[in-house]
Write a structure and sequence with these properties.
Layout lengths: L2 H16 L19 E11 L8 E4 L20 E2 L14 E10 L3 E15 L1 E6 L2 E6 L6 E5 L7 E10 L9 E13 H8 L9 H23 L1
Antiparallel strand pairs: 1-2, 1-4, 2-3, 4-9, 5-8, 5-10, 6-7, 6-9
Helix pairs in contact: 1-2, 1-3
């Protein structure tokens, strides 16, 4: 097989693999439930400060929390999550509080090395974002977004995305919260990747994949015939 034919075969294999890429569905925006309901996607723990939680998760906040310096307004895509059902609750009057929001997701059965995602967050007052303990981004604004993302550092099994929020001390009127939106996610199933790399180790492909693959074989055959005629 000549060099052009090899390149054509590689293109076909790549198209079969990418055709079966899927989103990472476990990456869920904050506030996917109704206002006042627990967001059970994000485990919440207090790392430092005097706050005593009544639940292991944050609550979805109501809209319109501030008049003077507003938090980003809740939307259909995402909402703020907060430590108590009343988002107006004031915290951390004597010292800074640290709140850890953790989202776990399992990539078993997928190619962890193919995964990536992009997103944005806002926090009162500041936050650091970690993927499996690796720092991705920092931000300190509750009226604007901060971008974050990852294209590596994923585990083959369970992964943990953590948002560590610092609430600066203030004697009164001192709520805290987190808002997260994922803008794009991607991963390839492990089985599909193996099939694309080794098409001779036959599994029966889906109709769409079979059409692409057969088209590639036809292209390779045409190139080979032209080579012989030359």
């Amino acid at each position: 097989m000549n060099q052009n034919a090899c390149f054509a075969a590689m293109l076909v294999c790549a198209s079969v693999a990418s055709a079966h890429a899927v989103p990472i569905t476990a990456l869920i925006n904050t506030g996917s439930a109704a206002s006042g309901v627990l967001d059970t996607n994000y485990l919440l723990t207090v790392e430092r400060g005097g706050t005593r939680l009544t639940e292991r998760y944050g609550y979805v906040s109501q809209s319109g929390l501030w008049d003077q310096t507003p938090w980003l307004a809740n939307s259909a895509a995402s909402k703020w999550i907060v430590p108590a059902s009343d988002a107006w609750t004031s915290y951390d009057g004597a010292s800074d509080g640290i709140y850890r929001y953790s989202l776990s997701f399992d990539l078993s059965g997928y190619r962890a090395d193919s995964a990536w995602f992009t997103g944005r967050f806002s926090a009162d007052n500041a936050a650091q974002v970690f993927l499996n303990g690796r720092l991705l981004a920092t931000g300190s604004d509750f009226s604007r977004w901060t971008s974050f993302g990852a294209d590596g550092g994923f585990n083959d099994g369970v992964n943990v995305l953590e948002f560590v929020v610092t609430n600066y001390r203030l004697s009164a009127g001192n709520p805290t919260g987190l808002r997260v939106e994922y803008l794009g996610t991607y991963i390839e199933p492990a089985v599909r990747h193996q099939l694309a790399l080794r098409p001779a180790a036959f599994e029966v492909p889906e109709p769409g994949s079979a059409a692409v693959f057969m088209g590639g074989l036809g292209l390779i055959g045409m190139i080979s015939r032209r080579r012989r005629r030359g």
